[in-house]
Amino acid sequence: MARRTRFVDSDILVIGGGFGGCGAAYESRYWGRDLNIVLVEKANVERSGAVAQGLSAINCYMGMQWSENQPEDFVRYTRGDLMGLVREDLVYDIARHVDSTVHKFEEWGLPILKNPQTGRYLREGKWQIMIHGESYKPIVAEAARKSATTVYNRIMVTHLLMDTVQPNRVAGAVGFNVRNGDFYVFRAKAVIVGAGGGSHIYRPRSVGEGMGRTWYAPWSTASAYGLLIPTGATMTQMENRIVLARFKDGYGPVGAWFLLLKSHATNAAGEFYEKDRYPEIKGRVGHYVDIQPMPTCLRNHAMIEEIKAGKGPIYMHTQHVLDTPEKEELGWEDFLDMTIGQAVVWAAQNIDPKEKPSELITSEPYVMGSHATCSGAWASGPEDCAPSDYQWGYNRMTTVQGLFGAGDTIGGSAHKFSAGSFTEGRIAAKAAVRYVQDMKSNTPRIDEGYIEELKQTVYKPMENYRIGRNEIVAGTVAPAYITPLHGLQRLEKIMDEYVGGYSMFYVTSENLLNRGLELLQTLTEDFENVGADSLHQLQRAWELKHRIVTAEAVARHTLFRKETRWPGYYYRADCPKLDDADWHVFTGSKYDARTGEWEMSKLPVHHIVA
Amino acid sequence: MPTYTDMTRCDGCGECVDICPSDIMHIDPVYRRSYNIEPNFCWECYSCVKACPQNAIDVRGYADFAPLGHKVRVLREPEKGVISWKIRYRDGRIKEFAFPIRTTPWGSIKAAGEYEKPDAAAFGTQMLAHEPTALHIDALPTLEQKTIPAKQAKA
């Protein structure tokens, strides 16, 4: 079928209109008044990304104006939570800027709760402040929309474009409009990827109709990594995939309940299991168990061991803390602002949190760079404080020239959440403006043959379907193609069974990983035969591709890191303990799209904050 | 929890199609009403529910763990800056809540380009837009530059 090709030229192309992308669009305009800034989004920027539905707290705010925390404190916190391994330069950089982001959000109209005694923002915890955040995304989107030259909604970006003269330089991106099927070629001097991390890499606990009830948005389809890896960008910490402790089935957040409302969790017998498991955890991870607060993964570990021992269900005792109407409102708003499904579960199961406790459980794993985890691209750090080997040019530029990242895209810096991701978008954008100005008239080149080849590739799933469907009467069982959903379910099963999903209690090993990689290889081959019966399914096909690429990176990094660095996120059964002597390093990988080879490496960890 | 559309209320305007982050609200070609084409990729984010001018879209808990008989309804009134929730339990109990959503008029945010153009000196610093003023402290914190040897990790 003939598809129209539309060319869009820009100075800065921002891919993804979530918090990272919105921050990038805003800041690009601030410094680059005359630049052509294009923002491209798979859905509608008004409600897209991980905060589409809203959020009940901002989880990264220093409060420097009240001397509540300093950026150095935040570096120590994230370093502890990630068991010693964060890019301290990147974490510091976000921490020192994030307060200005939050103050702009408030100025724009985001209602932030105040402590009536002090007049300061109401703290949920040391790093979190409470908001009335139902409209958080539309507010931030308004600022971004007005700042970009053009916003393209409903364009699924499938590939990044590389310069035909300089192979390690980005030249733009291609994708298609999911409404009318037009092929889009975005040519740009600099590209900032603010795409989403990965849900549905692993089999979710929910089944059937419920499989979309995951913790992280099902539309966060690992494009942050699926776009970057084929360019040969160096990736890091892909094995650091995260498992979340959440209210069972609804995936309601636990932070406000633990920190603000001071609720507590016990096993079914009412025992505080975390402290009972201290000696065992100490044996695995040594001094890291004594970090306050206890690292997120270790708290998971205690819960997982408890459930394995048959001491579940684990209960959050909500009934002890909702003693005033104000607290009840806070508890409900925590869900209604961001995880409405949890309120639905309570209503459906007749659970009034004032009367009954609720079950907690650990989720399936996710691949992200913005939560309590730091998968993503290896990026150049800030000029004034990054060690020399963390710095090869512009802040937040990946190892590919002109390719920048923000939010889930950038690895090594955890605990960004919404405000930190927006801030990182701002940091990347200022550097990208400088890059564009330095490049002047040196515009990337792309030849027509390359574009045509990519166009054929992008629509191939529809061609597969058009040909393959003639073999059968109807239905999804065809000998020549699989549907995107078939491919996704196969991916989830492989990752679950071989790369440490929930059904394996997050356990894997060298043998399991090697077998998993064999199966991933055949899935990669079968992706060439995915059949899409509509533009919507074509979008699902490319989302699947991004997830498969990401999944392979996760498996390879997990195989390379011969230790269990984060028990509670995953376990290498053949290397059960944390091994600082050999593995106080970042893992790195570089994929060669021509040969299909992965080159693994260890990247140094520098402690720049005492 | 997947959404469904009440076909006596929907007029096929397509607001839900436009807003759905998961691209699963579509217009049925026969009935000319919206419907959820892929319930197993719905995240009950309620974006379509909030956007529907006819209040025609509702949510029913996922079949794999949610018993029938519940409702979580929402009314978002952007011009008033308020969102209201009504939760009906399976056993008939009702809970109602209302929360503010925005303190400024919609459309009132200034674009980044409407601020005074920053000078070249600011461009050469680590400062971002509106800093240091927007930090509410005097200056952007910096780490004292330390010479860190480019020690290679063990390969």
Question: Mind explaining what this structure looks like?
Answer:
The complex is a heterodimer of chains A (610) and B (155). With 610 residues, chain A is α/β, with parallel strands linked by helices. Chain A is 36% helix and 14% strand. Chain A contains 17 helices and 19 strands. Chain A has helices at residues 19-31, 71-81, 88-108, 136-147, 223-226, 255-260, 273-276, 278-285, 296-308, 325-336, 340-348, 417-439, 448-468, 484-498, 510-527, 535-560, 580-583, and strands spanning 5-15, 37-40, 57-58, 129-130, 150-152, 155-162, 170-177, 183-193, 235-236, 245-247, 265-266, 314-316, 358-362, 376-377, 403-405, 507-508, 571-572, 586-592, 597-603. In chain A, the strands form five sheets. In chain A, strands 1, 2, 5, 6, 7, 8 and 15 form a seven-stranded mixed beta sheet that branches. In chain A, helix 1 (19-31) links the parallel strand 1 (5-15) and strand 2. Chain A is globular, with a radius of gyration of 23 Å. Chain A starts with a strand and ends in a 7-residue tail after the last strand. The model of chain A has no long low-confidence stretch (mean pLDDT 97). With 155 residues, chain B is mainly β. Helix content of chain B is 9%, strand content 21%. Chain B has three helices and seven strands; from the N terminus they run E-H-E-E-H-E-E-E-E-H. Chain B has helices at residues 15-19, 47-51, 120-123, and strands at 3-5, 25-27, 34-36, 57-59, 71-77, 82-88, 94-100. In chain B, strands 5-6-7 form a three-stranded antiparallel beta sheet. Mean pLDDT of chain B is 92; it is low at 146-155. Chains A and B meet through helix 1, helix 3, helix 4, helix 10 and helix 11 of A and strand 5, strand 6 and strand 7 of B.
Helix coverage percent of chain A: 25-40%
Order of helices and strands of chain B: EHEEHEEEEH
Mean pLDDT of chain A: 97
List the chains of the largest interface with their residue counts.
A-B, 95 and 90 residues
